[in-house]
Amino acid sequence: MRRGELTRAAKEYGRAEEAIDTLNRQHYSAVDESSRAERELSRALRSGVPTVRAEDEFADGNKALDGGDYEEARMHYLEARIALATN
Description:
By secondary structure, this protein is mostly helical. The protein has helices at about 1-45, 50-65, 70-85.
């Protein structure tokens, strides 16, 4: 019985470790995308390109990032960059 408990605990630990690794990768990706979007937004502001939609998406990305929804944040940052590219 003890061996079964240890095996189950090891499996659960592995799943938790895998989940943490996934969250860490998602966080890194969102922060990287945020940096890209911020640079492009700054460039657009300096050059006078309309940025309202991009700024809104960037703000939504920041809210999602602060809330721990890294994939949602990354998508908002991508939308901000797309909005800038289509102006």
